[in-house]
UniProtKB/TrEMBL annotation:
Keywords: Pyridoxal phosphate, Transferase. It comes from the Bacteria. Its cofactor is pyridoxal 5'-phosphate. Belongs to the trans-sulfuration enzymes family. The keyword Transferase applies. The keyword DNA-binding does not apply. This is O-acetylhomoserine aminocarboxypropyltransferase/cysteine synthase.
Length: 430
């Protein structure tokens, strides 16, 4: 397929990045289960290593199957390039790596995936990096948290675990004014529901483990670059604007322009951190992307039905789904994710912690797992699992208090899902 910006999402999710295999004509993208690629001659090898010619060297850096997925996700997000990696958490480290250094900090939302809260509040400190957690609905607090050592602003578009929607336009105004890149984790929304770059995001990160793959088979991550950030506007981003000592003094921004971040991610990030996506994982994720829009439509349709049913049930205290009129985030659906508020939300069961534990034990169709974005409906009691490492205040701030369960609504028959919730609520509150 030739690149046409006019193709619709449904066309691009199947075709972007792919073409019949040049060697065999195979229509589906083959799994290049291959490590190394023969150089035509020594000059060709040198050109590849100098990044003067783009091609395949070694699969820690680039692989033909992974490359198709990179182009596909970049296209769906409206970015100029992308780098895939081994997991969503790897994508977060890879996104921060060129921007950060010891003593530098990021300003991040309190409403994040539990593992991300842990990664940002503990693990990155070992690199000398720090995260300042702020309520991203409080724009003055976001502004006030930024200082001279801040190198990025980070949030989720549709945020875990409550399905809260971040006002990306308002946040990107703040990051723009401060001359900082905005990194948006678009895992829960996917580019079908939300395109963060259109709302000012500089980089979009994904856990491709979730909706992009959609079937619970492989872990993976991706960093998409908007190509719009001026890394040379000040001296804050020397890895991109100044001679990079880890690549014989190459100036990435001067040399690659809007593709600077993508080239840096591959030539330095994947080369030296080694968080590579394997070709088998890329294959499963490519197959997943082919049906992304169809699945997301059904996820949204089911989530709307189930959230409405739960909200009207007397055994339930409250439901956080942004697609409900009662949600304080309902206004943002039209602006940020006009095709729907996703498939993820939390609800509080009367009876607190004990009722939640009974409830997850009693469910039959819903699986109790630490995952989201599967075709299957999933449930988790965050306070006793994913958000267990957090303090009580962090749990409350993240919307994962002890009386709350998070659901990831699948694409099964809505009536069956409602019947399952009904019988489990009966057991939980009897
Ligand atoms: C799952 C998830 C991650 C982490 O991704 P992994 O692939 O599990 O490493 C990050 N952010 C969000 C929103 C997620 O749902």
């Amino acid at each position: 397929m030739t690149d046409g910006p006019s193709y619709g999402f449904d066309t691009l999710q199947i075709h972007a990045g792919a073409r019949p295999d040049p060697a065999t004509g195979a229509r589906q993208t083959p799994i290049y289960q291959t490590t190394a690629y023969v150089f035509r001659d020594a000059d060709h090898a040198a050109a590849l290593f100098n990044l003067q010619e783009v091609g395949f060297i070694y699969s820690r850096l680039t692989n033909p199957t992974v490359a198709v997925l990179q182009e596909r996700i970049a296209t769906l997000e409206g970015g100029v390039g992308a780098a895939c990696c081994s997991s969503g958490h790897a994508a977060q480290i890879m996104a921060l790596f060129p921007l950060m250094g010891p003593g530098k900090n990021i300003v991040v939302s309190t409403r994040l995936y539990g593992g991300t809260v842990t990664q940002f509040s503990h693990t990155i400190n070992r690199f000398g990096w720090e995260a300042t957690f702020v309520d991203f609905d409080d724009l003055d607090a976001v502004k006030a948290a930024i200082n001279d050592d801040t190198r990025a602003v980070f949030c989720e578009s549709i945020a875990n675990p409550g399905g809260y929607i971040t006002d990306l336009d308002a946040i990107s105004k703040i990051s723009d004014a401060a001359g900082l890149p905005l990194i948006v984790d678009n895992t829960s929304a996917t580019p079908f529901l939300c395109r963060p770059i259109e709302h000012g995001a500089t980089l979009v990160v994904h856990s491709t483990t979730k909706y992009l793959t959609g079937n619970g088979t492989v872990t993976g991550g991706c960093i998409v670059d908007s190509g719009k950030f001026d890394w040379s506007a000040n001296d804050k981003f020397p890895s991109l604007s100044q001679p990079e000592p880890a690549y014989h003094g190459l100036k990435f921004h001067e040399t690659f322009g809007p593709l600077a971040f993508t080239f840096h991610s591959i030539a330095i990030g994947l080369r030296d951190l080694g968080m590579t996506m394997n070709p088998q994982a890329a294959h499963y994720t490519l197959m997943g992307t082919e049906t992304l829009s169809l699945r997301m439509e059904r996820h949204v349709e089911n989530a709307e039905k189930l959230a409405t049913w739960l909200e009207n049930d007397p055994r339930v205290d409250y439901v956080t789904y942004a697609g409900l009129k009662s949600s304080p985030y309902n206004d943002r659906v039209k602006k940020i994710c006009p095709k729907g508020a996703g498939g993820l939300f939390t609800f509080a069961i009367k009876g607190g912690y004990d009722s939640c534990v009974k409830f997850v034990n009693a469910l039959e169709i819903f699986s109790h797992v630490a995952n989201l974005g599967d075709t299957r409906s999933l449930v988790i009691h965050s306070a006793s699992t994913t958000h267990r490492q957090l303090t009580a205040e962090q749990q409350e701030a993240a919307g994962a208090g002890p009386g709350v369960v998070r659901v990831s609504i699948g694409i099964e028959s809505a009536d069956d899902l409602i019947a399952d919730l009904d019988q489990a609520l009966a057991k939980a509150t009897s």
